[in-house]
Design brief:
5 helices, 258 residues, 13 strands
Length: 258
């Protein structure tokens, strides 16, 4: 057992790889840390460039103050800062439009948003006279524009069926919060200026909201955002709280200066 006390312990990490995230830069500050007693009085986390399982942050900060009890044996043996009771933290996050574009146009995201042939898709196909067995929607070349009044516009190309000509699609929606996490609502799907298929719009919205759901289901940190503000053409800002169950340090790729 390490017997150590720190008035302030600071850790800087670069290009850190964790179980469900890659962080470009991570700065952690623990204050009044008693390793033997498994107690610290404050924890601050500042990240830049966070690439999470199904989302991305340009800047994310968490700040928790008070008596925070942790398991010193687990920290020493497994490099996991496990809190005995979740640490309550204030949270702020910034997501830039450029980063959102890179994320949504990635092959992984486009594949997740594409609609594969299944029973519900077959029902939609029958409405437009298509063959249900071959019907599906594959998305490509996606881009995002943040707009006023917390709205977002996603432009993409959709190929319908096994062989088809890509159609330009634009999904407009309102960025909102649901159950403490990001969601989209009030959606409209258009092609060449004409609104089409509420059913397809609903499918895409379910996929988008489903992708974002990890933020409230993570085993390590539960986020609960209460405020969202969109700065048109630039970024959106989130504020709220989080419950930190544990921080895992065993999978970081490179420590700054190391």
């Amino acid at each position: 057992m390490i017997a150590a006390n720190f008035d302030k312990l600071e850790i800087d990490l670069e290009n850190s790889r964790f179980a469900n995230a890659i962080i470009d830069k991570l700065h952690i500050t623990a204050t009044n840390m008693d390793f033997k007693a498994g107690l610290l009085k404050g924890l601050s986390i500042d990240t830049a460039g966070g690439h999470f399982q199904d989302f991305v942050f340009d800047h994310l900060t968490l700040d928790s103050q008070g008596d925070l009890n942790f398991d010193p044996n687990l920290l020493q043996s497994e490099k996991v800062l496990q809190f005995l009771t979740p640490a309550e933290a204030s949270v702020s996050a910034v997501v830039n439009q450029d980063s959102l574009n890179a994320f949504i146009n990635s092959p992984r995201t486009l594949e997740k948003l594409s609609v594969k042939a299944n029973k519900s898709v077959g029902m939609l196909a029958s409405l437009i006279g298509a063959n249900p067995a071959n019907f599906g929607v594959t998305l490509s070349d996606a881009s995002v524009a943040l707009q006023k009044d917390n709205h977002i516009a996603i432009a993409t190309k959709a190929t319908v069926g096994i062989i088809g000509v890509p159609l330009p699609l634009e999904l407009t929606a309102k960025l909102d919060l649901a159950n403490g996490w990001i969601a989209v609502s009030d959606t409209h799907l258009n092609t060449n200026g004409t609104e089409i298929s509420p059913q397809l719009s609903e499918m895409l919205v379910k996929k988008m909201n489903g992708m974002a759901g990890w933020g409230s289901k993570s085993e390590d940190i539960h986020f609960s955002f209460t405020d969202l503000k969109v700065v048109p053409g630039k970024q959106f800002i989130l504020k709220g709280t989080a419950k930190i169950m544990r921080l895992r340090f065993g999978q970081q790729a490179k420590q700054a200066g190391g």
